[in-house]
Amino acid sequence: MIKKGDQVKVDFIHQLEKNGPEIHFYGEGILDRVEDGRVYGRLDDGQPFTCMVGDVVKSVSKYNWSLIPEHVQFMATDEDGIACGWLVEPKILGDAWRHQAHFSAYFYINRRNNYLNHFRGDWRESLEQRPKEQNQ
Predict the structure, then answer these.
(1) DSSP secondary structure letter of residue 8
(2) Contacts of 84-93 spanning 24+ positions with Cβ under 8 A
(3) What domains appear along the chain, each with residue ranges and CATH number?
(4) Over the chain, what is the mean pLDDT?
């Protein structure tokens, strides 16, 4: 079941008028609303889209790893909504993810670019290791 906040893969062509130009929507995005068989969301570049539920496929990962530097092995979102990338597996300390040897994360998705942080839900469930097929 697709729902608001899901990360999805988008691939569809939209045509405003019968003989008008076609617009190809393709990429990863986040759903902002799902109703009446339609989904409303935005691609990673911020471009909004609306299409039928069948035009999107729910992503398996909590994060879009193609946007995250290769050396980052773990991603987690703190209580404040900022996503952080780690070289080693962090643990929860207070209201944020930390590692005793590395109190600072190595990669951030800041508030300005927070639409790139695909994780939605309880921040304590946000930790994810880089998928094996993304490891190089």
Answers:
(1) E
(2) 84/108, 84/109, 89/127, 89/129, 90/127, 92/124
(3) 7-58 (2.30.30), 65-134 (no CATH)
(4) 84
- Name the nearest CA neighbour of 14 among 58, 43, 60, 63: 43
Classify 1 as helix, strand or coil: coil
Give me the DSSP letters along 82-125.
-EEEESS--EEETTEEEBTTB-S-SEEE-GGGGGG----S-GGG
Segment (H or E) for 26: strand 22-35
Residue with tokens 């035009």: 55
CA distances from 75 to 20, 58, 63 (A): 42, 19, 8
- In angstroms, the CA 113 to CA 15 distance is 29
Strand ranges of the sheet holding 83-86, from the earlier edge strand across to the other edge? 107-109, 83-86, 74-77, 128-129
pLDDT in tens, 69-116: 888 899 998 888 888 888 889 999 888 898 876 656 677 776 666 656
